[in-house]
């Protein structure tokens, strides 16, 4: 048996697939690549394949991860090549690292607590300064309250504790980029669109890209691959 942590991107039309559809697509690619997945034991065995935090439909990403266990050992470079040869356009393996099984390695969802996003807004040149100022005010605010739909109905939530960084940049006369770093995981989950919806007036979102996932604690930043040898310290 051999375990691997795999970094991949999700772009173009595949951003419209759900998290479950992405999982099924990658499972099919693994089979097409003639890779033998390890399965759990019991009455209902399932492949030993686990993913990081789900990405909402319509959001692209340059930094997604999944863990895979194979029956046979494969070199990381060869595994990346085999997967890329079987994946559809829009999904691409960017890196593969073997997980050292003699050390306990926590799951992706257990370690990841930060996500970075780039949000592009359709804002006319004459209104960009005002929108940038309003976003700066949100960054400095002590509270950012939004309405969220939950199983118990609509609930007002203060998302400000989950916002760790926010900056803006003018791309051209029609596009304003907003860079957001937010909390994910059990401590709270910031949706980048929530920040935009907190503005006093509606603004069209052109695109959202997740650009990074990591663990941050006491100023120390660790990427998912840093945990593969069991020495990540979390």
CATH topology of the largest domain: Alpha-Beta Plaits
Class computed from helices, strands and strand pairing:
alpha+beta
First and last CA, distance: 25 Å
Round the Cα radius of gyration to an integer and report it. Answer: 20 Å
Helix content: 10-25%
Number of strands: 11
Q: Tell me the CATH architecture of the largest domain.
A: 2-Layer Sandwich
- In what range is the share of β-strand residues? 35-45%
Pfam families: DUF2344
InterPro entries: DUF2344
Protein name: Radical SAM-linked protein
Organism: Hydrogenispora ethanolica
Detailed description of the structure:
The chain is elongated and about 60 Å long. It folds into two domains: 2-99, 2-Layer Sandwich (Alpha-Beta Plaits); 114-221, 2-Layer Sandwich (Alpha-Beta Plaits). The chain starts with a strand and ends in a 12-residue tail after the last strand. Helix content is 22%, strand content 37%. The chain has helices spanning 19-32, 76-86, 108-111, 125-140, 192-197, and strands spanning 2-10, 49-51, 60-70, 91-99, 114-122, 145-150, 153-158, 163-170, 175-183, 204-217, 220-222. The longest helix is centred in the middle third of the chain and has 16 residues, at 125-140. The model has no long low-confidence stretch (mean pLDDT 93). α1 (19-32) packs across α2. By secondary structure, the chain is α+β, with helices and mostly antiparallel strands.
